[in-house]
Structures are given as C-alpha cells and as structure tokens.
Amino acid sequence: MQATAIAQPNIALIKYWGKRDLDRNLPAVGSISITLRDLFTRMHVAFDEALAADTLVVNDAPDAAMLPRLAACLDRIAGEARPRAHIVSTCNFPIAAGLASSASSFAALTVAAAAALGRELDAGELARLAGQASGSSARSLFGGFVELANVGDDIEVTNICEAEAWPMTVVIAITETGPKPVGSSEAMEISRRTSPFYASWVEQQADDLAKARAAIAAHDFGALKSVSEHNCLKMHSIMWASRPPVVYWNAATLRCLETVRGLQADGVPVFFTIDAGPQVKAVCLPEAAGTVAAALRATDGVRNIMTTGLGPGARLEADS
Ligand code: 2P0
Fold it and tell me: What is the pLDDT averaged over residues 218-224?
C-alpha cells in the first residue's frame, strides 16, 4: 500500500486564470505549458490501517498547514473511508513562491496514491483527479509542451510536442523567496468577480491557444514569444485591475523584464513569462542560455538563478 512518484513543475505560456466550476475546480480557459526537467517534487505515500490520522512531512519537517489539501486529494482517489496515510514530500525549489510547487506536488501525489492503491487509472482520470486538487497539476502529468483543453464538461490534457523535439531552456530569476501574499485560487476568484477585463480574457483565450499551438507545431520561436508575452501581460492586467488589486510583481520583477527586452533588442532568442509570484521565467533557445543567465544574474534585486531544460511527465520511482 505504498508508492513513490516524482513530478516536475510546469510553466504556463498560455495561462490558466479563473475557474468555471469551483466545486470541481474546472478552469475557465484552456492553457499550454512546458514541463521543466531539473526542479522536482518527490512524493511518497504509504496507506496504513494502523494509522489514526494522516501525517505529512515536507522537506524533513512536519507540515500541518498543507495536510488538509493533500488529504482531500487522497479522499477523492481512495474514498473517504480509506486507510490513513503517511505522506513524505521532498521538493528541491522554493514552495509557494510562484514556481508551481502545487503542480508538481499534486501530480506526484496523484500518481503515487493511485499506484499505492493498485489502481490503474488512465490519463484522463489522473488528469481529472490531479486537476481537482490544483488546476495546473494536471499538466505536470505530461512532459514537454502540454495543452490542457476544456472539452465539454471536462478537461483533456495532451502532450503537443515532446521535450526533445524542440529543446528550450528556462532561466528562472528568483527575486523573492518567501510565500506569496495571496494564493492563486483566491486571486483567481477576486479577478473573476471584480476585474473589468475578465470577460474579454476568457473570450480571447481560444485565439491565443491557437496561435501558440501553431507556433509550437512550426517551431516558430518568434511567434511563440509574441503570443506568450501578450498572454502573460493580459493575465497580470486582469489582476492589477481587480478590487482589491493583486500585484505579485516587485521592483526586481520589472527590472528582469527590462533585461529580457535588452537581450531581445540584441537579437537573443528569449522571452519572459511570470506566474502568480514575483519570479521571472526567461524561456530561450538552449544556445542563448548562458547569455540569458548572466544578464539576469547581473540584474539588480535578483537573488538567485535556476536554469533548466524541458523534462518528462510525472512517473513512479523505480524503487517504490
Ligand atoms: C498557470 N497559474 O496556468 C497559472 C498562471 C498561476 C498563474 O495555475 O486554484 O495552483 O489550485 O487550481 O494550479 C496557479 O495554479 O491553481 C496557476 P488552483 P494552481 O500555471
């Protein structure tokens, strides 16, 4: 009754922001992401009839705050009458700081829990279960370029380009390591209820998805840059125009955008994207990685740099 799975976070190029069904945690819009290679969450799940309560250890420390959300995910997979579980999570990057730790965590948890129960779930069922826990985590079930589509009353997650088919490097500029001021679920609801731009965001998403899909199919970096930056800035405009406003950026976030703009002016193949946090992700062709990393490292306010290629989807660990 135990298993270990590993999953990588993903970075959305065409973003998920807003929900169409809060109970089932269904996204209002489709999204397209890239799964990273060198950042990971490893999740060990052991169901045990002898346990009186679930337990969670994250990076060697008990974590009571996160436990209810993980326990609810296990309830959906195993039923509420399930045996209690001991969950051990290890993550090699900052948690809850806009680096998609929930995506890798819930993708790994879903895969590990299903295996621990001996349940053979197909990709659709895994995506539904992971997505109910964290919308973006359904995308981390797959590697490379991944699309999450709204299909009828459901979601469908597919790989649209393998990681090796169009190599990219992502340089992440960490501008702050603490947890974010407002969680993304709450911020999405504030946006949906109050932002004057929300309705047009939902309406225009199909167009951005089509442009990104075509750019990926054609390996057209310029086209992917153009639609990704536009989609990212639209998402943040919605947040900024909400009441209360949600602003995840800091001064260094903006300085990183200037750095990326400077690189682009010099012909470097790179573009930026920013999620629900102050970190800047610079997506570039691999030959530009060194130049991009050096420029971001030299940007005032950048505390740390992480560089990664694209990687695989969630999977069981061989030794589990
Ligand atoms: C994304 N983000 O597409 C967008 C862009 C953040 C900004 O998905 O409420 O933690 O748990 O379904 O999955 C943040 O996402 O949100 C997110 P919930 P989740 O990556």
Answer: 98
Query: Domain range holding 281?
Result: 169-309
Nearest to 175 by CA among 299, 258, 34: 299
| Number of separate domains in the chain | 2
155 lies in the same domain as 182: no
Give 22 Cα–ligand 1 centroid separation in angstroms.
Answer: 13
pLDDT 10s digits, 153-176: 999 999 999 999 999 999 999 999
| 12 and 95 housed in the same domain | yes
- Condensed to tens digits (0 to 9), the pLDDT of residues 64-112 reads 989 999 999 999 999 999 999 999 999 987 665 567 678 999 999 999 9
137 CA: nearest ligand 1 atom? 13
Select from 184, 231, 232, 246 the residue to mutate for testing ligand 1; criterion: most ligand atoms less than 8 Å from CB.
184
* Distance (Å) from CA 304 to ligand 1 centroid: 23
Asked whether residue 186 is assigned to any structural domain, the reply reads yes
At which of 164, 191, 221 does a domain end? 164
Residue 3, C-beta contacts closer than 8 angstroms, at least 6 positions apart: 44, 45, 111, 112, 113, 115, 116, 316, 320
Q: What's the rounded Cα separation, in Å, for the pair 133 and 147? A: 18
Alpha-carbon distance of 7 to 35, in angstroms, equals: 9
B/e letters for 31-41, b = 16+ CB within 10 Å, e = fewer, are bbbbbbbebbb
**Average pLDDT, integer, range 41-56:** 97
